[in-house]
Each structure stands twice: as structure tokens, then as C-alpha cells.
Design a protein that fits this description.
The chain has 476 residues and is an all-beta fold. The protein has 2 domains: 120 residues, Jelly Rolls (Sandwich), CATH 2.60.120; 323 residues, YVTN repeat-like/Quinoprotein amine dehydrogenase (Methylamine Dehydrogenase, Chain H, 7 Propeller). Strands 2, 3, 4, 33, 35, 36, 39 and 40 form an 8-stranded antiparallel beta sheet that branches. The longest helix is centred in the middle third of the chain and has 5 residues.
Length: 476
């Protein structure tokens, strides 16, 4: 039979939930550490350490936060017992605050606020009253007081129409607190009711029942979302006089609040069933909701962390329940509805500031993602696997002859066929408008191609890629 060609038109994202024979040619059942936003296949950019010193914690690291001020950033990291601050003068991480009763990352929350005329970073942990970090003095002090009824052991804090809302009180797990409206001498650390005016008053409401505790708060442009363990509510209104708490009628698997992230005026959250979002009225599944279902099915999302940077959402997860730290970073390109995985490091927590994604690793490194070609010196091992291909005929042998491609860098190519395995590597021509022919070997009715980095070095494989093959009828 005559020689034939097939083209891989572009490179998109991952999809693990479908039979490989049903996947489009631009999708992969197995890919990692790649950037496909342009349609080409590129090694993902890496990250570098923000400061050389490591967070030296005796107990497990749980959270991190980059607090921006007009004088620069303040870098904080929390272990289960201690809150650390990076001291730029002494070039070390110093103990900033001791948690008397210990903390867990899933019960912590950070929130930038203004108390009167002072900017503060609120830290809620659920095991003691909230504290406030002052970037001018680099000190932590109690935020609330018994007199102002704001010394509750809350885990979640959010600003909505200028007021501070808080929840997660272990003594009243379904209670939602709110502060007085700031102004006129009132501050958000005062949660008392005001007999003179209901609309400037602080107060609280019990949402649902106590055996369904509040597990997260998120402010949208016109409502406050109240996640509970088994249900979802929303608070509408801009003052206590017109507050309405309404149950959201939607069936979905409840997320951890650290697995939720805002993008435009939608709230995305990762569950063990897939990626969902709240659209302002109800919960919906993302178009590629089940794309990573086989991965999420056995993943441990109890320690999941999330962040948004530009048009990409990031979710750090543990792919196995026995893993001591998160071992995989999921990237979701919102406009393209495409997933990609990142591996080669252990992300404890994530934070985005001014378009930069920061990450704390299990080794105590605080890093920033950038255009570097390594993961803080470690190679970026990238690969892309095509679906199993039969080119429409499983009854015919295909003899693979060569790939014709353009790009840059050295690339590894592997052929897996029912007739054997063949591997090679070649440096792509960097001359403009030139192409490189990559000789192949392999005979089989079905086959799969795998493109990968060589020794962790970056590469670019432009689209499309053309495969030349010969078809032969099987004897008998």
C-alpha cells in the first residue's frame, strides 16, 4: 500500500476520563510539565527561590502568605505550632508567633483589612482568637476583645460590603458573625449590636443546623457564599436590615475552603469528582469536569491548596493518601478549558501577588514562578503522550517511518506499538523556517508516540507535526 501521512494539528491539554481511542489528537492521557497555550508543545517555565534561607520548622509546614505593603512584601509561613516571618535585615526566618493550641492548614485563613486607619493582616486559625500582623512593627497582636464580642475562635474571615464576617467558631459551628459598619468611630473589630441603628450594628445569625458546620466564606460582588459541610448558602443584602440567608439548591461534593479560588466573579473549587464553579446563582460543573477523574478518584484533597494567576488556576493535591505532602500541581487554563499537571516538587501552599505565583515547598523553600528553565536548580522533566492511535484501521499494520517537525532544543521520541518499542532523541533545527526529520521504527496495528525532554532540558515542538507511515494488510 502507498505511503500515507497523518498530522498532529496542535497540542491542547490532558484528558484521562475517556477511552484513548475516543480522544482527539490534540489531547493527551498522560502529560506533565508542559505549556501548550500557543498550540505548540513547550517545556513549562520553572521557579526560583525568593530568598536562599529555608523555613526551618520542627513540625509540618501548613500555610504561607505574601503580604504586600507600600514598603514591599512581607513573607510569612505557618507550621503547626509557629508562625514565621522572613527578616530581610538578618536574612533569616524568625519566629513571629506561637500558636498555643496548634493549627492545621485547612482551618487557617488570612485576610488583609483596615482597622480604623491602620492596615493589618488578620490570621484566623480556629484554636484561639484571631490575631493581627502589623507590617510597620513586624509584630502580631490580638485582634478582638471580649468587650467587643470579637474574641471568638473563628477559622474563616471575609470582607463583604465593608464589614468583617467570620465563622468557624467551634462552640457555635453554624454561626456567622459580622462586625459593625466601619466609620463614625466604628471599627471592624467591634461585633456588638448597636441599639441606635440596626444598619450599623454588629451581630450574628445561625445558618442551618449545628451538625452541619460552616467550612468556608467567600465574598462575591453581590453576595457572601457560606460553605457548610453538607450544604451551601448565600447571604444577600448590604446591611443587617436587609440581610437574607438563602440555601443554594445544588448537588455537588463539598470542597475544602483552601481548594476554592476566585476568578473574575466566579468561585472555582476542586472536589474529588472534578472541577466546579459557582456562577452567582448555582453550582455548575466545568466543561472538562471529569477530565482528571481517574487522578482525583484516589487523591487526597484534605490538604489541597488553590490560587489564581492571570487566566490560570492552580490546585496543589496529594495523589495518594499516604503522601506526607502535596506532590502534584494541577493547572487549569480557564479560557481554553484545558488541564495540565506539574510534578517534581511538593507544594505546601500557594499565593498570588501582583500577577506572580508564590509557593512554599515541603523543604521550606519559598519560591516564585518565573521564566527560568528549572525548578530552583532541579531539572524540569516534561513529557507528552499521544492517545493510542489506530488511524481508523485496527486490522492493518502500520510501519512508522519518520516524523517531520520544527522547533528548538533536544527532544526524545518514543514509539510504543504492539510490535515493540523504539526510542530516539534528536536536536531540532533552530534555523528559521527549517524542519527536522526524525527517523522512526515500529510496526503495529496500534501505536502511541511520546515526546519528552532530554535530561530535563527545555524544548519546543511546533505544531503541526507530520507522521509518515506505510500501511500493510495483515496476512491471512
Amino acid at each position: 500500500m502507498a505511503y500515507q501521512t497523518v498530522s498532529l494539528p496542535s497540542f491542547g491539554g490532558m484528558r484521562m476520563d475517556l477511552c484513548e481511542g475516543l480522544l482527539k489528537l490534540d489531547m493527551s492521557p498522560d502529560a506533565c510539565n508542559l505549556d501548550t497555550r500557543s498550540g505548540a508543545l513547550r517545556s513549562a517555565a520553572g521557579f526560583t527561590r525568593v530568598m536562599p534561607e529555608l523555613v526551618q520548622a520542627e513540625r509540618s509546614l501548613e500555610r504561607m502568605y505574601v503580604y504586600t505593603t507600600e514598603h514591599g512584601n512581607r513573607y510569612l509561613a505557618a507550621a503547626q505550632d509557629v508562625l514565621y516571618l522572613y527578616d530581610e535585615q538578618a536574612h533569616l526566618w524568625r519566629q513571629l508567633y506561637q500558636f498555643a493550641n496548634g493549627v492545621t492548614g485547612e482551618s487557617m485563613d488570612f485576610l488583609k483589612v483596615r482597622v480604623g486607619t491602620a492596615d493589618r493582616l488578620l490570621i484566623a486559625c480556629g484554636t484561639e482568637p484571631m490575631v493581627a500582623f502589623d507590617a510597620e512593627t513586624n509584630l502580631v497582636a490580638p485582634f478582638g476583645s471580649a468587650e467587643k464580642l470579637s474574641n471568638k475562635y473563628v477559622s474563616f474571615a471575609e470582607l463583604y460590603f465593608g464589614r468583617l464576617f467570620a465563622a468557624g467558631d467551634p462552640e457555635s459551628p453554624s454561626r456567622l458573625y459580622w462586625s459593625k459598619a466601619p466609620g463614625g468611630g466604628r471599627t471592624i473589630d467591634d461585633w456588638r449590636s448597636d441599639p441606635n441603628s440596626e444598619n450599623v450594628s454588629g451581630g450574628f445569625v445561625d445558618v442551618g443546623v449545628d451538625d452541619d458546620p460552616i467550612t468556608g466564606l467567600f465574598a462575591m460582588s453581590n453576595q457572601l457564599l457560606i460553605f457548610k459541610r453538607d450544604s451551601l448558602y448565600r447571604l444577600l443584602g448590604d446591611r443587617p436590615g436587609n440581610y437574607r440567608v438563602i440555601a443554594v439548591d445544588a448537588a455537588f461534593r463539598q470542597p475544602l475552603h483552601t481548594a476554592c479560588v476566585r476568578y473574575t466573579d466566579r468561585l472555582f473549587f476542586l472536589t474529588d469528582g472534578g472541577l466546579c464553579f459557582y456562577d452567582g446563582q448555582t453550582v455548575r460543573k466545568s466543561p472538562a469536569f471529569r477530565a482528571l477523574e481517574p487522578l482525583l478518584k484516589y487523591a487526597n484533597l484534605r490538604y489541597a491548596r488553590a490560587a489564581a494567576c492571570d487566566d490560570t488556576l492552580y490546585f496543589a493535591i496529594r495523589t495518594q493518601y499516604g503522601a506526607p505532602y502535596n506532590d502534584t500541581l494541577i493547572e487549569y487554563d480557564v479560557p481554553r478549558d484545558r488541564f495540565m499537571l506539574r510534578k517534581g516538587f511538593c507544594p505546601v501552599d500557594l499565593c498570588t501577588v501582583h500577577g506572580v505565583l508564590y509557593m512554599l515547598t515541603d523543604a521550606g523553600k519559598l519560591v516564585a514562578f518565573d521564566s527560568s528553565a528549572s525548578y530552583d536548580g532541579a531539572p524540569i522533566n516534561a513529557w507528552w503522550t499521544t492517545p493510542v492511535l489506530d488511524l481508523g484501521r485496527k486490522d492493518i499494520n502500520k510501519t512508522l517511518l519518520r516524523l517531520t517537525a520544527s522547533g528548538e532544543g533536544r527532544i526524545g521520541v518514543r514509539v510504543d506499538a504492539d510490535g515493540g518499542v523504539y526510542e530516539t532523541s534528536i536536536r531540532l533545527s533552530s534555523v528559521p523556517f527549517s524542519v527536522t526529520e526524525i527517523p522512526l521504527r515500529g510496526v503495529g496495528r496500534v501505536f502511541r508516540l511520546r515526546f519528552s525532554s532530554v535530561n530535563g532540558q527545555p524544548f519546543t515542538l511546533d505544531a503541526p507535526v507530520t507522521l509518515l507511515f506505510d500501511q500493510q494488510r495483515r496476512p491471512g
